Amino acid sequence: MNKKFIPFLLFFLFLGVYYLSSFSKVSFGDGIGFLLDVEKELFTNQVTPLSHFLYLNTAIFFTKFCNIDSVMTMRLMSVVPAAISISLLYILIKKFIIENWIAITCSIVLGMSFTFWRSASTIEVYTFNAIWVIFFLLFSIKSLKSPSLKNLLLTGVFLGISMWVHIQNIMLIPAYCVLLYQLKHFKRSIFISVSLFTLIFCAMFLVNYLAEIPVKYTFITGTGTWIEDTFRQGPSELLKDLLKSFLFLVYNFNIFLIFIPLGIREIFKNHRNVFPFIAISFSFTFGFATFYAVSDNYVFFIPSYFMIIMMIGFGIKSLSMKYNLKSLQFITILIPLFYIGSYKIASLLPATRSFQEEKAYKGGLSYYMLPWLHNNLGCLEFTIEKRTTTDNVEKLREQSLEFIEIRENYQDREEIIKL
Length: 419
What we know:
Helix 3 (53-65) crosses helix 4, helix 5 (100-111) packs antiparallel against helix 15 (302-320) and helix 14 (275-291) packs across helix 15 (302-320). By secondary structure, the protein is mostly helical. The protein contains 22 helices and no strands.
């Protein structure tokens, strides 16, 4: 088989996996808010942390001008970018590791990691954001290996565009600065790259100015106290954050974590020119996700997981020089069984029974431990049937009712409850 076809095979493989495991009904979370905006077909002119300007307007474009149902649009906005990201990850890993089986294995490990798989299964911005982050990483690495004008230019462009998707990507600016410092002798290329990045980045302020939105709301929401809460944390809270981030790592990468120390050593020893870039990229993105004081901070780890998977790849390569590790590629097939097994064990524990009952309205423990959402309980049926819960879901109810009201203009409730 022609090796050039491998990225395409990975794309179609994960396109199938993600589509088949995608939500059967609109799931709980922030997705209903995005879906409501797309259903209204009103383009946003605000660039704020919660508007996700490029993500939302892209979805609205497909719904409005391509006549695609809003629910299908939002499904594809998660599934397709996720599959593309896995293909791009394979290409990124291949910049260093010539063994196809290692690059394929690492791509599958990330593709089947809980956080990434769950983001592909629901309505969320994070897989769409992943594309732009990987493009930035890919052309940054290419710049370090071959500092051409094209590579440096695209590095600045993709970093700038990524800000229009999720302002979290501001955490990649320190890595970009390190990259520019390492290539400081290529002054013309750096000037053009920085100029384009600055132009794209500052355009966000212009858009908000024209919409009469204060500049500060480009970076803060004005509705939550997450930033203040983050800096208010004491030593015990910070320690819990670190423990939680480690548990996320274990659940996402399980036995493959053992290759990380070897991978770090391999990068430092044999790829020292890219070590500072990878180290800074990981430190800022992982650190932000770890200490950011929100309940669902697990999704913010995805950019840092690209560096994690590279470390795992280097670690496998380092150890494969002494041992035959090709069987690892077959272990990836068992990853779904790991989630099922973990869920079954957790379900038997007395400590989880009250949690199961408390979260039964959205699927109980399975909602939190299984990445796929096929045959899930939906927020629209929850709203239509007026079910109750002790959780604060008033905003979700409000958005669901507004969506239902719009849909009732061309669908009956029996059809809507199935969405």
